[in-house]
Amino acid sequence: MTQTVVSIEHLQKHFGKFQALKDITFDVQAGEVFGFIGPNGAGKSTTIRVLLGILKASGGTAQIFNQDVWSKAVTIHNRLAYVPGDVYLWPNLTGGEMIDFLLKLNHQKHSAKTDALIKEFELDPKKKSRTYSKGNRQKVALIAAFSTDADLYIFDEPTSGLDPLMEEIFQKHVLALKQQGKSVLLSSHILSEVERMCDRIGIIRAGEIVETGTLEEMRQLTRTQITVETQVDVAPIAQLAGVHGFTADQSVDNKATFAVDTAQVGAVMSDLAQRGIVTLQSTPPTLEDLFMRYYNSEGAEGHDTK
């Protein structure tokens, strides 16, 4: 039986008259990577701060390890590791001293794994923290987190400031945690990062969860992009059910680009085959397609970016 590690139901958070979280409901299961996505200002960090016991919820419930996140925060913290999107360090401590301090806070010790991570992330641990760039400050927190033996890892925009190579290393270690049966809550607006690693995804918009599910389930809600050239007239394809944005190529006869609803792909392909396919390029729906479904000009009403 699958164990629920994080459980949030109808979570709300008010700051005076401003309602930052209106209705947040999702869960994270043992051994899964859950992607929590949305633009800056949608409520991702507020949700995570409630989970960490930093903010008290105005309504709803939030539990980690079947314990209330506010009243049992200290107990819960003994079993989790957390990396924020902007890491602040004591300026006069070296990077190595900061890593050891963060590990000690979690009742952990500097290990051979810590040394390997320092080397892999290319961090100079002897430099004072005040000399570090934003990316290097992130590395300190990531090294400490990945050195920690926790049951739940919470990452809030963790790769902010990292170069693409370091992002790849981060992704590798998250996937390793998954293989070890650890649970990961990953908040991010880098869709390729989420698409590569996450088992399930929750999309937050203006303080509300608007969609949750696996990427494959969500792909059923989006459209496949097709560019095709046929031997005979391709124009009638535009009239088929499920075809959108049909655009004929002005420089090549019988060539066009269009989008097709997932449910209608088979029927459209059958019709194209009868027309004699010369070339065909099919691009499956991506997480970005789904994301933009909720954040285009039509879906942006009520979105607060404060």
UniProtKB/TrEMBL annotation:
Signal peptide limits: none
Record SUPFAM superfamilies: P-loop containing nucleoside triphosphate hydrolases (SSF52540)
Gene3D superfamilies in the record: P-loop containing nucleotide triphosphate hydrolases
Entry-linked Pfam families: ABC_tran (PF00005), DrrA1-3_C (PF13732)
GO MF assignments: ATP binding; ATP hydrolysis activity
Superkingdom field: Bacteria
Keywords: ATP-binding, Nucleotide-binding, Transport
All copies of domain ABC transporter, residue ranges: 6-231
Protein name (Swiss-Prot/TrEMBL): ABC superfamily ATP binding cassette transporter, ABC protein
Organism: Secundilactobacillus odoratitofui DSM 19909 = JCM 15043
Highest classification ranks of the organism: Bacteria, Bacillati, Bacillota, Bacilli, Lactobacillales
